[in-house]
Amino acid sequence: MRADLTGEEDTEVTTSRRPECTVPFVEVSITEFDLACLPETGAVFDRLLALRPARVVVDLSGCRHIDAAAIGLLLDVHRQLVRTGGVLALREPNPRIARILQAAHLDQILPVHAGDAPSAAGEAAPPPAVAEGPSSGGPARPDAAPRQPAYGRATVTVRS
User: Fold this and answer.
1) How far apart are the first and last CA of the chain?
2) 127 falls in which pLDDT band (50, 70, 90)?
3) Whole-structure pTM over 0.70, yes or no?
4) Burial state string for 100-121 with b = 16 or more CB within 10 A and e = fewer than 16
5) How many CA atoms lie within 13 Å of 126's alpha carbon, on the beta-carbon side?
6) Counting beta carbons within 10 angstroms of the beta carbon of residue 9, is it exposed (0 to 12), middle (13 to 18) or buried (19 or more)?
């Protein structure tokens, strides 16, 4: 805010442009999620976040244990995704892990789904890409550039 000689204030407003999401969907399957494996899991999430995904689903169906350090990492990933317009969701935690997530109130911050339930926004997991054009029988749009969808899948397995 600046004041000129007449005493009137001039307000400058600047807007910062958030980076756009570049990958529509990434799924991460985690089997161990505690302090012992946090460096490896954190490195996977760091590489994943560099892709600026629009939606990340963490599949916990094979995960047997989660601790406070892992919950902290999930919250950190959530914050970073929100800054870029992305969404983090958890899928298929076993009943014990679901109770831990509820006790930590993480289920009030992140969508937690049983099975292949749709996301909180009502979206299902993205469908596989279908080519359109003369060869597939679909209409070809001359003004549309061919899009190559980028879907990812990462697996974090800790071996003792």
Assistant:
1) 58
2) very low
3) no
4) bbeebebbeebbbbeeeeeeee
5) 18
6) exposed
